[in-house]
Structures
1.
Amino acid sequence: MKKRLLLCLFTLAPLAMGGPRPTAAPPTVKSKQVAPKVVAPPKVQGHPTGNDDPKVYYSYGALDYTTVDERLLLTKSVIFEYKDTIFKSDKVLYDRKEKIASSPSPVQLDDAQNTITGERGTAFYKLKTAKIEGNVKIIARPKPGNPQSPRKGLRKDFDSPVEILCNSVNYNWKNKIAIPEGNIRISFSIKKNKKTQKWNVTSDTMQYDGNTETVQLKGNVKARADNGDKLSGDSGTVILKEGIEELKIGQASGNFDSDQIDEDEKPEKKETPPPTEKKTGGTGSDSVE
Amino acid sequence: MSVSRLLLSLALAGSVLAGWWGLRYVKNFRAPSPFSQPTRPLLPADVGLRLSDVRLVGRTDGRRAWILTAARIEGARSRTRLTLSGGLTATPLETDGKTPQAVIQAPRAVYETQQKKISAEGGVLVTANEKGRPKATVRAPRAGYDLKNRVLNAVGGVSVTLLETQKSRATLKSQVLSYALSARTLVASGGFTAALLDPKPVTLSGPLARWDDATQVLVCPDGATLTRGTLTGYSATLKADLKKGVYSSTNGFGDFDIDELKEFTP
């Protein structure tokens, strides 16, 4: 019995002194969850703030910007918007140093009044000019109608905007002057007495002024209407301004189908000095209002 | 005195001695001793090892691989964790055993021995070297390094500064950053802003960026905003090749100042 008691004492004593030590849970380094920061696209796409805005606004499908020579190659639905001029193409190479945007693919240049399309083109932003080449078509829209127009003019009766076709054109979008070159033809339609008369005018050279809305024609000017009316001369002027529309051919000769022209619009036949462009027929100037 | 009494007395004496010996393992127990002994700080319950003013040199294949200095290192009894505190500096070395590959500084860090991961906090500064010269610094409130996969992770306002190199200098700020040392690729997520010199100042920002250190190419697959001089652009995707100096993007728009003469005038 005593042996058993001693054995128990020896066995239990160490246990009574202390059991297995508890181990503290290891501290964990919690990684703080960070809410992803949403970066909203900047509001850079948009429209020029006006003619004082010096910025060019552009958009594209793909862009390669080479910083060595500061060139941007933009492809797929490229739009360059500068002041009220929009240059569109599927491929544009822009030189930031020279400020030249050139496109080897079909281009379209729009401003408030005109739309110019061609097979290729270059916009010179330093000079604010563009050269469009290859089957060029200029669609000249009239300026917004003048409610105080002195009289009802033919311009209001234009069936469609004036269309100028040529091989190439130099267009200054600042002063709105276009100088077409090669196979120049201007065409427009006039609706009179519920009939549409389409005119085609060709000349050696032509200058279109978008500000005054006039076209100056020089050299071998020939005007032909689809009803057979014809006019020809050395020079001519087409005034497209609403209310005072006029087609004047200097030193003109031609014939008219009088049924297609109102009495007050028949060309007056007066003996006038050749250089001046007046409402004259025969060897003088002919005009159609 | 009978033999049985003698045995009982001896047993009692033995029991007392055994108890006294066992008490040494009781927490905060100080053995009564007639002799004055120098008092030693006792370790916390979960601490099995404590070293002060430590300088450790790690070796791989007999050569020096890293140097670690810390004011204090505590090892858990479970041997799964080392806690380093009081100014930690870790210096991985190049294969020559001398040149520092990087210098990692932090007030405190924890090393998980089984997972082979280090977690540092309290403001971490990593200086990465190239051929012994500082190439980049990483500052972050918290950072971790996975020794197995050789991946550095940093969270919470991470700032990376690529010191001036041959062609470019850059800073990168992001919420989350991950850098794989083997692949030399960096991923910045949770919103990033990068400022480069190519050599003109360039700013890039977006939700996500992947940087390949070998090719020097930055890819922003989820959209990016680019500013370079007066040119600003936003695009759905962006790839910046800083070696070639080419920025390629898709489905974008932007603007630039047509009268940016100053920008290109030397």
2.
Amino acid sequence: MPNNLHASSSIPADLRPHQFGRAKGTKFGWPVDESKEWLIDTGASIAVITKDNADKFDLSVVAGSASGTTGGGGILIKRGLTTEFEVFDYAGSAVKKQCSLDMGVKPNNLGAEILGMDQLNDAGARVYWDPVNKTGKLEEI
Amino acid sequence: MTDDEFAVWLQDETQNNRMSAAQRDDLLAQKKIFEINRPIIEEKLRNRIVGFANGNMLVDDDLHRLIANAQISFPGAMVYFEPIAFDLY
């Protein structure tokens, strides 16, 4: 069975699913296309990126909160970033999905770049994950 | 994040041209209105997302929808929000 999820490349003992994908946008009018290792976080309602990664793009702020995250951290909601990740279609072929929903930006660089359930919902995808063998997949519903 | 930490963060965003001064001031103003209403919000609206835009309360279960509705009603306005008694991530 093909898989497109894996353990964290930087923290192999991490039991949570990750996938290499991309973040796309612009900076000063020029295209920016960055490789990202997304944490597929079933506990996240929205996608979130770290401050320094967000600063690589020109993003428009639309909302903010001083609370609302585990540990009581703040979050700014910004527009202008497109995530790209891979899902298997009905035939089992790997296809790239892109999502341009607003994203959360952390006030710091702690933790992972998070692909939230809003993005999987937007892409019509579901997640299977085996934490024992650290393998799994995103696939179309 | 304390009020002071939030204000410092927004100031940093403004100084680095990631947010205008008007957006910063609007967001902080909406937060003040939220704080005035916090007791009733936390009593009556648990497990909802509550926001303020242009001085008006918005309540939804979906943050994207809350922001979209705010922008329809108050174009260009900042939205200060909090999920009540749960975390977004």
